[in-house]
Amino acid sequence: MAKVLVVDDEPTLVATLRFNLEREGYDVLTAADGEEALNLARKSRPDLIILDLMLPRMHGFEVCRVLRKESRVPIIMLTARADEVDRIVGLEIGADDYVTKPFSVKELMARVRVRLRRWAEAPSEQVMLSGDVRADIVRREVTKGGKAIPLRPKEFDLLVYLMENRGRVLTREQLLQEVWGYNGFDQTRTVDVHVGRLRDKIEDNIDHPLHILTVRGKGYRFAG
């Protein structure tokens, strides 16, 4: 039975989500503030977290940022604001999906199922290697030649996804969907920016990359 942690300070919404999640067969934990959420997440190790942004004691962004340093657990963010900036910031710091209130409970349940399925299907190997580049999935750490390479949460997620699919040509739209969790042809520049940052950090010569290769007119391919 998958375990879902719901973090929100609205009792009515929490009760509604608990009812629907338990009806789907999930074990449900709840927290009403950011600090409680962190403690529960560390103690109970949920399989997925539904996280509101506007929380007492610690903002949802900060909760997500801290959790992402410790775990790859899927995080679906909830917010009463529809600002694109909030959505982008949330995804940049490591959230897997983003839902704006008011939302359809059926849609949220569908997103929960998708994220849990992807989590269950994720590679079981804890360390991925390519030449002198080493990515530790559990610790969310990357080294090159034994030296630590600091990556932002989405840079790490992008690198791991590329390494998981090494040899395959991945379109920008596909990367945007799989790594950031949303569609949007007008947002593919985000992928290019992150690829550029990764190349700066893991390639010896960014003009002649050996790991992340551009496939003209299509997207990117990870070699190595």
Share of helical residues = 40-55%
Radius of gyration: 18 Å
The gross shape turns out to be elongated
What is the subunit organization of this protein? single chain
Along the chain, the helix and strand elements come as EHEHEHEHEHEEEEHEHHEE
**Low-confidence residue ranges:** none
Beta fraction of the residues?
15-25%
Question: Structural class of the helices, strands and pairings?
Answer: alpha/beta
Q: Note the gap between the termini.
A: 37 Å
The biggest beta sheet, please? Answer: 5 strands, parallel
What integer is the average pLDDT?
A: 89
Number of helices: 8
Strand order in space, largest sheet = 2-1-3-4-5
Annotation, overall tally of beta strands: 12
Topology:
Layout: E1 3-7, H1 11-23, E2 27-31, H2 34-44, E3 48-52, H3 60-70, E4 75-79, H4 84-92, E5 97-100, H5 105-121, E6 127-130, E7 133-136, E8 141-144, E9 147-148, H6 153-164, E10 169-171, H7 172-180, H8 189-202, E11 212-215, E12 219-222
Parallel strand pairs: 1-2, 1-3, 3-4, 4-5
Antiparallel strand pairs: 6-7, 7-8, 8-9, 10-12, 11-12
Helix pairs in contact: 2-3, 6-7, 6-8
